[in-house]
Amino acid sequence: MLEKEQRILAQDSDDISKKVHDLPEMKLSTAVRRGMMQGRNREMRRRKLFYGIGAIAVGAAAIMITISSLGVAPKEKPYELVQTTRSPQPADFESFRPIAAQDQGIAAALDQGLVKRIDQSVEKNGFRIEIAGAFTDGRKAYIMYSAHNQTDHTAYPLVESLNFGGVEASHFRAESKHAMGSNMLMPGQTGYYVYTANLVPSASYKGDATLAVKIWDSTTNEYRDQLKFTIPLEPNMFKNEERIYHPGSTLTVDGQKINVRQVQFTPLNTYVDLEYDRSNGKQIFKLLNPVLIGKSGDKIQKAYYPDTMFSDETKVTLVFKTNTFDQLDRTELKVAGVAALDKDKMKIVVDLNKKEIIEAPDDHIQIIEPEGPAGAGEILFHYKLEKAQAAESFGLWLEDSFTDAEGVKHKRLSPEHIKQSGHTVSGNPDDSTEDYNPYNFGKEALDYPQPLTIGIKQYWNPIMESQSVDLVSKKGNL
Q1: Which residues fall in a compositionally biased region of kind Polar residues (predicted)?
Q2: Per-residue pLDDT tens for 7-49?
């Protein structure tokens, strides 16, 4: 998501939160998320929202889309291992303060003085990268850096990877956050960034961090330089300040068990590690409106809108923007429901010649005629659902392969002619969600034994059932 859009969404969220902070958490959550949708609609009213098969990293995606549109394949040089030198002058950490609005961990580190000063720089061919500071709590790593474009070409600095002692951090939702409208740097311009990466608790990270940085030159359409350098940073700076609990409790929604494996409080965030029970009959895709609730006497505190880490079909980690709830008498996790689907319904069966759905999870999904012509073997799936927590919704995600009636597997093809694609929400009191998803079997599939079966990876099927589970209590559950 572009930073301009992020700021608008954050502003709408803040405005509505101030107006309705006394509402129950369910109403508050819905109100704020609707405000976020309204902000998105204002910013993107004339745009069509498209999504691909899988997640695309912010920043790098924008550049690669631009490159793709020019029809030019990026030319890459091999990485060059370089030594850092002392920065000309100590960095002012307050230059990174605007970025803190996007990440609680950054704000917490700045407010508590937790940033380790690095002040190391690398300069190559008129482009200088300065590492101002860094910090990590063993779950998320943060690198604060500035980029100085002293060339006569517009350029983009991109952090490609981060590793500790040769063990690479996860690329899942890793990104360089910045307070500008784009990470593009004009000639003579300086930009400030914070690179964030998620760390796997089970990985054996060791001291010192190595950054791989690319400089994309938008004039030559190639990478100007690709550099690797090492900075002094331990993989867990706050080991002695973290608090870890193993409640052994289970959240049950619609009969589906969600086991709480660990709750971890660090100076930066609260991490709630959840695991979906193997005995569940439904595949859980998402927890709806999760809220962290802390209670102490008559005092109640709540934290909303967690980020997610390492979410898949077996587990999810919720990252809440707080770190003090275990100091209250009791802390619990509450959800409004789940988005889930029966495991035996995770498929769509289609007769391609008749353009008919023979089997689907429900009657909310149909095959419709696209606005323009479709290629042979192309169809368009349409999904619409009313009044179903649309602010939480996501798009249909299908497998990249399908099987014919004889069990032979085939690869899907990229869309050929159908241009309709995307996921929208109404943002009105009806709270509806709508999804367009083209699928290209290929013209040869018309001759395959029918019907054809597509596996479902993700399907929006909300189950509204409010439930809660205890996480931490002063009565003891270490």
Answers
A1: 421-430
A2: 333 443 433 333 333 334 444 444 444 444 444 333 333 233 3
